[in-house]
Amino acid sequence: MARWFALRALRGALTVALVVTFAFVVLRMSADPALVILGPEAPPEVIAAFRKSWGLDEPIFVQYLDYVAAIFRGELGRSMRDGRPAIELVAERIPATLALTLPALALKIGIGIPAGVWASLHRGTLVDRAVMSLAVAGFTVPSFVLGLVLVLVFSVKLGWLPSGGQDTWTHAILPIVTMGVGGAAVLARFTRSAMLEVLGQPYMRTASAKGLPWARAIRDHALPNAAIPTVTIVGFMVGTLIAGAVVVESVFSWPGVGRLLVVAVSNRDLAVVQCILLLVAATMVASNFVVDLLYGLLDPRLATGARGAGH
Q1: Is the pLDDT assigned to residue 296 strictly greater than 70?
Q2: How many domains is the chain built from?
Q3: Is residue 6 part of a domain?
Q4: What is the pTM of this model?
C-alpha cells in the first residue's frame, strides 16, 4: 500500500510539474508582457525598466528556476496589473466559481446517472431511444452555443431570467443549466454503456437463474460493477470544475476563476495565469487520487492489488 501511495503521489507531482513548466514556457514565448501591459507606444526605457523590475530581462531558464524556488517558498508571484499576490486574486474568485460548478455537478450526477440506468433497463424501447437522443444532443452542442440560446429564450424573449452578472441567485440559473446539460449527457451515455455491459455478464444470468429478484440483482450486482467507469467520468468532471467554467463564465459575465483566467491570458498577467493553472492541475491530481481510492471500495479486487503492490 505504501508503494501504491508513493507511485500515485509521484505521478501527481510529475503531472503538476509538467503543467507548470508548459504554462511557464508558452506564456513567455507567446508575447512580451511588457508590450501588452504598457503598450507598444511606451518609451523603450520604460519597457526596459518594467522588464527588469519583473525579472523578464533574465534568460528564461533563470526565470524558471526562480519561479520554481518561489513555489517551494509558498510564493506564487504577483499580478503585473496591480501588484497584488496572484493567490489573493484567485482566492477571491473561487467562491463564485464553486457557486456554479458544484450545483452544476449535482445536476450532472442527478440527471445523467439515473437517465443512463433507466435507458439501459429499457434497451431498445422508446424510452431508451428518447434518452439517448437527448444525450447526443446535449453532448454535441457546445456550451457557449447552448448558453447563448438559453439567454435568447429565457432572457431576451421571455424575460424570466437575467442574462449575466452575479447580483441575485437567479443570475446563476442559466450558467448552472448550461454547465450541467453537457455533463449529464456524457454521464447518461457512459452509464448506459456500463450497465449494458454488466447486464450481459454471466453472473447476472446466474443470479436470475437462482431466483434472485431482478431488482435486487440490479441493486447488489449491476449498479456496483457499472459504477466503476461512471466514477471515472465523475472524477474527471470534479477535476475540471475550474477549467470547465471558463467558457460559461465568459458567456454570462460571471466573476469567477474562469473569467479571471481569460482576462489574465489576454493581459499576459503571468503570475495569475500560472497560479490558476497550478490550481487546476492540483485539483485534477487530487480528484484522480480519490477516484483510485473509490475503485478499491467498489471492487475489492482492485484494493487487493493495491495492497499487493505495497509488498
Answers
A1: no
A2: 1
A3: no
A4: 0.80
Using the CB atoms, write b or e for 256-281: b if 16+ within 10 Å: bbbbbbeebbebbbbbbbbbbbbbbb
pLDDT in tens, 36-51: 777 778 788 888 888 8
**The domain containing residue 281 runs over which residues?**
86-309
Average pLDDT, the chain: 82
pLDDT at 297 over 70: no
- Domain membership of residue 165 (yes or no) is yes
Cβ contact 180:138 at 8 Å: no
How many Cα atoms sit within 13 Å of 202 on the Cβ side? 0
Rounded Cα distance between 31 and 26, Å, is 9
SS3 125: coil
How far is Cα 303 from Cα 175, in angstroms, rounded to an integer?
39
Instruction: Report if residue 54 sits inside a domain.
Output: no
Label residue 298 by pLDDT band (50, 70, 90). Answer: low
Question: Does residue 110 contact residue 189 with C-beta atoms inside 8 Å?
Answer: no
CATH label of the domain that carries residue 254: 1.10.3720.10
Residues in the chain: 311
Please indicate, yes or no, if residue 99 is contained in any of the structural domains: yes
Q: Of the spans 103-107, 133-137, 234-238, which averages the highest pLDDT?
A: 103-107
